[in-house]
């Protein structure tokens, strides 16, 4: 693919043989109508049907089709990671292969990146055709939590239809199940100009959804992980040390209070319970132990980071007059 490619469309998929020809033809139609130079990158995530054979047929007809096939199912994040590595377009657009994302959105998404200056534009399926109880309501709660924790004001962070500047996808590493939080990863990497576009959501035409209820639980845990690592990944002591010190201080203060009150009672000959019979003694002890452990966790984290080969990996945007 030549370096003048304007748009890379990255499409992760699993068992979507029925929708692929229609999706391909639709994308090609949009590209030709707008005179875009383009490539379509399919990533077959271990399909058990004839998806790969369909892709091979499309590649024979269209030299702009590129494809990767996993030997088994690894998940959407690894698929996107490899797709981002292969993408050569000035703008990279991701979409699902089930025809629920409309390729007609591509020209406007491209404009928002190239002319409006956004680093990343996320789709917002304002009107959805999913089941209200099993998908819509949990999705709203999930996205509300995302907005509160991450501070990124997107209505649908997990929407598969997104557009990126090329330098964004080349600067982030999508792993595990972190595809849900690419905007958070992009922001942590310094790409803070994140926009949103209301996009069309189409009812599923073929097959069934590949995602279940577990994605909401796993998604929440992944949100905590990505939020923590993006803020404290290179400075663990700033979190563990601070929390550990505060807990130890609270526990030590309780211990001082207990000791002082015992001495006061003894000096004035007042009856007093044994310190070990008071609940505050165990609160004090627990706080000091947990605080010490957290402080040591931060210290060990700093030692590990000091010997990490990526401790000085920083994203450089531009350079001038350097050899």
Structural commentary:
- The structure is a single chain.
- The chain has a 7-stranded mixed beta sheet, sandwiched between helices.
- It has 323 residues and is α/β, with parallel strands linked by helices.
- The protein has 10 helices and 7 strands.
- It folds into 2 domains: 7-232, Spore Coat Polysaccharide Biosynthesis Protein SpsA, Chain A (Alpha-Beta Complex); 236-306.
- Strand 1, helix 1 and strand 2 form a beta-alpha-beta unit.
- The longest helix is centred in the C-terminal third of the chain and has 32 residues, at 236-267.
- Helix 5 runs parallel beside helix 8 and helix 9 (236-267) packs antiparallel against helix 10 (279-306).
- It is 48% helix and 11% strand.
Please render the helix and strand layout as text:
Layout: E1 7-13, H1 20-33, E2 38-44, H2 51-61, E3 65-69, H3 76-86, E4 91-94, H4 106-114, E5 120-124, H5 132-150, E6 162-165, H6 166-169, H7 182-188, E7 194-198, H8 214-232, H9 236-267, H10 279-306
Parallel strand pairs: 1-2, 1-4, 2-3, 5-7
Antiparallel strand pairs: 4-6, 5-6
- CATH-assigned fold name of the largest domain: Spore Coat Polysaccharide Biosynthesis Protein SpsA, Chain A
Low-confidence stretches: none
What does the overall shape look like?
A: elongated
Please report the distance between the alpha carbons of the first and last residues: 29 Å
Average of per-residue pLDDT values = 85
CATH architecture of the largest domain: Alpha-Beta Complex
Q: Please tally the helical runs, counting DSSP H or I stretches of 4 or more residues.
A: 10
CATH top level assignment of the largest domain: Alpha Beta
Give helix and strand order, one letter per element, not per position.
EHEHEHEHEHEHHEHHH
Q: State the share of residues found in helices, binned by percent.
A: 40-55%
Strand order of the largest sheet: 3-2-1-4-6-5-7
Structural class: alpha/beta
Q: Approximately how much beta-strand content do the residues carry? A: 5-15%
In the CATH hierarchy, what is the superfamily of the largest domain?
A: Spore Coat Polysaccharide Biosynthesis Protein SpsA, Chain A
